[in-house]
Amino acid sequence: TTSDTICADVCVTGASSLTIDGNGNGDFDGFQEAADYLNCAGVSSALTITVKDGTYEERVNLGTINGASATNTIRFVGESTDAKLTSTYSTYPDFKTLTLDGAKHVTFDSLTIEAGGGTYGWAVHLMNAADSNTVRNCVINAPENGSTNYSSGIT
User: Fold this and answer.
1) What Å distances lie between residue 146 and 112, 125, 150, 151, CA to CA?
2) Which of 104, 124, 146, 152 has most Cβ atoms within 10 angstroms of its Cβ?
3) Are 89 and 59 in contact (CB under 8 A)?
4) Nearest-5° angle of CA 79, CA 153, CA 64?
5) Phi, psi at 11, each rounded to 5°
6) Closest Cα partner for 51 from 71, 23, 9?
7) How far apart are CA 93 and CA 49, in angstroms?
8) pTM for the complete prediction?
9) Beta bridge partners of 112
10) Average model confidence (pLDDT) across the chain
11) Does residue 27 carry a pLDDT above 70?
């Protein structure tokens, strides 16, 4: 299929930089499209994904990435913290904006990640042995709700 060909081609060529641009001028229109690519193709070298400023309203699930290692890292780097990933879902289990589900060696840098669903929301959720991941120079926003475990910046 076309997507299998794209995945194989990109992984084999070892792209070192790609771009997310919500205006359609990048390699991907949003974070989930980039995540789908990574979940499919994997990496064969270090990869930086530049995120153009703008608001990306979506829930993102990044799984185990074939080829990711301490050498073959994946970095999502915002042009500034005006590159904003947000989700307005507020019901369980859909209130997670960014889920790292077994992902390793991924860095999020200079972004705003927001759980904007109201009462409930996790901005970043790590699960299923996701480790060696970094969130730095980011603004993390989650609903203020001290009465529940269902509101957190990073879990």
Assistant:
1) 22, 18, 9, 8
2) 124
3) yes
4) 70
5) -65, -45
6) 23
7) 27
8) 0.87
9) 84, 139
10) 85
11) yes
